[in-house]
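name: query_chain
kind: protein
chains: 1
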Amino acid sequence: MKNHKEIVLSMGHSNATFEEAMESIKMGISHSTHVFNAMTPLNHREPGVVGAVFKSNITCELIADTVHVHPGIYEVLNKVKGTDKLVLITDSMRAGCMKEGIYDLGGQEVLVKEGSARLNDGTLAGSILTLNEAVKNFYKHSNIEIYEAVNMAALNPARVIGLDKYKGSLEVGKHSDIIIFDEGFQVNKTIVGGQVLQFEEA
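structure:
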């Protein structure tokens, strides 16, 4: 396995051992999908994939809905990896921003209730998280500045996929894709390519 400069290899949803994960990182893995979720956990005798993520210099994603990962671990993750190595994501499924109820996910019935999306057996099935809420949750439960939380959802993901020359921060020459939110992290305005998007009220 060799990583082409334009291809990002990500590790996640894996039962790999710590040793296997570290070897994969040496061979080109540079990112981790959904850290803590569906991967071998950190244990003092078997560090697992999580241990490899912690020990290495790779970047990692976090579903910061306070359901997939306990918010008490946010600050721990930040202290281990640093704000420039964390990427906030939603992993949102089709029921995102919809009312509670039954939805379909790849032919499986999903119950959306009390802020989570679950299969009939209780297994998490994606999330209904929005990115502004992810920023809010991580900021609220970590000792970081607001700009650092925003960077985790904007600049860091752009950097991971090699688009930070064009996106991810407000700088001369970059694309004018902008989200404006208030003190409560509610989105007030969305701008794409310099154009303000208009949305109908739900």
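note: The longest strand covers residues 108-113.
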